[in-house]
Design goal:
Radius of gyration: 27 Å
Bound molecules: zinc ion
CATH topology of the largest domain: Neutral Protease, domain 2
Low-confidence stretches: 1-26, 613-625
Mean pLDDT: 92
Helix content: 25-40%
Structural class: alpha+beta
Shape: globular
Strand content: 25-35%
Number of strands: 29
Number of domains: 4
CATH class of the largest domain: Mainly Alpha
Largest sheet: 8 strands, mixed
Amino acid sequence: MHTKKILIGIVILSAIGIHSQLAISQQPMPHPHPIQYRLSFRQAATHRVDVEASIPTDGAKSIRLMMPVWTPGSYLIREYARHVETIAARDGTSNQPLNIIKVDKNHWKVDCEGVQEVVVDYVLYGREMGVRTNWIENEFAFLTGAATFLTRDDALDRPHIVRIDAIPEWTDVATSLKPLETRDHWTRRAADYHELVDSPIVLGNLDLQSETIGGATHHLASLGTDSMWDTARAMKDVAKIVEIEQKFWGETPYQEYWFLNLATESGGGLEHDNSCVLMTSRWTQRQKSKYVDWLSLVSHEFFHVWNVRRLRPRALQNYDYNNEQYMRELWVAEGLTSYYDNLFVVRADLCTTGEYLERVSKDIQTVENSPGRSVQNLEDSSFDTWIKFYRPDENANNSRVSYYVKGSLVGLLADAEIRLATDNCKSLDDCMRLLWQRHRTGGYTNADVEAILVEVGGEPLRGWLGSKLRETTDLDYSRLLACYGLKWKDRNSDSTTAPSATPAMLGMEISNQGGKAMVDKVAVGGAAAAAGIQSGDELIGWDGYRITQEQWSDRLGLYRAGDRVAATIARRGKLLEVPLEIPPSKPLSWNLVRTDSPDEKQQERWRSWLGQGSSGPEEKIEKGE
Ligand SMILES: [Zn+2]
């Protein structure tokens, strides 16, 4: 889901040198028995792809086929095999049918004694618009490797080749998979199954922009952006982010990279070794804050090239496509990536420092206003991602904390602590690079990260991280404020009257369900919960008058903190009258702003944090060298 010490050109140049050596030494040896797929889209109008998989048997009497239950980067068992509709096997030479039987939810066994090659024909349904699922229709197709390709479960290391029988109207294919032969861009090869899983494919009519940065080629392939996007400008802005992140890490571990930008009126992003998927709206670029959200998403997914794709938690070193992989380090993999995503956008001069502080303030409010912060700690949030994070229910805010958002705040505070402890000579940036250098091979644990924080920040950092990861006490922002010369500004501070009521002040959210105003969520400890309102109640009246979901927010705004009202609700068909008092506004409707007269040290830390040219909250930052 969003840096700064500039290294000198020599490092970049030597990284380019390494590329060309790798290019020579990694020339794939042609394997005599690759696994091959043919994809045909004759049923695309009904969201189906016909897959023909040709699988060598190597003389085995039977083979086992596997389809992953999840895909790396999105930690939820998604049961991709549920979209396999029909499946049959035949002898690749004689076309005689072979016995195929399903042995568990994502494995099949094919009897193939005396057969050289098994051909498996299956029909796959794909109509879930998301960055880790499939979408198939006449206009375009988006294919996720794990959701599309079954393979022989003992042949993951073998090359996999994909031939695409495209719909005649489709002109382009965008994927990091290399063409098998230079002139046939519809046939692609993966060195092994892992690369296939890690290489989403977009088919259709695309707007393609490319730019060489740091010796590597970068493509922005956009779908559905139509005339609403200026993709040349987007490519220019993406290039600024690429350049600053390459310099941050001091190494560019790829030769070619694809930003797959799908304007499909959906959201989210997913990282891969040599590409990422971004889902957005065709209107995104027309609105500054939405566009900054998109740039932050670009920055986030691209940061994953290093953090999480190549530098991984130890438990995630080798992917297990059949089972959950438990880890306590997602606050690093996702949280610190979230800290840096916004930071690179401001350092690349793509938003103002004022806009940056607003984004950070929003994250602080998200955590500090959620009762779940006192219930779940960061390590548990990471460990339980498989059963909690991707399955939010009406109680989610009361029972858990996001390792993305709280992880990013721990990064923000750690960065300030290190700058304070080292007289601004070191920062979290140095920790990230050490982590990369030392643990890129073999992975890392939270203990490794803790050791590096102490090594870089010195004794003041000893024991600092433990409580943030394993306890639920509130984060203390006072040293953050002192570090950069910041203060809180109450949004209502200019008003002489009590603040207008908001749903957040009451601690309840309602939505329109079939014309009814239904209470979705009630925050533990909030005024609505104290009055006895529950999730699932229907709100019918407010202060003696009929109310609809559309009217409620505006009507609420007519009341002030301290007012007493009665809500009329229906619970399982029974009418109830619930008296409640509108509480004062929470302190955390406050925003972070700069103090009027930061001292010299604070100004120095502020500049090295956000960029060399940043001297005022509304001032634009000069682009870093
Ligand atoms: Zn992420």
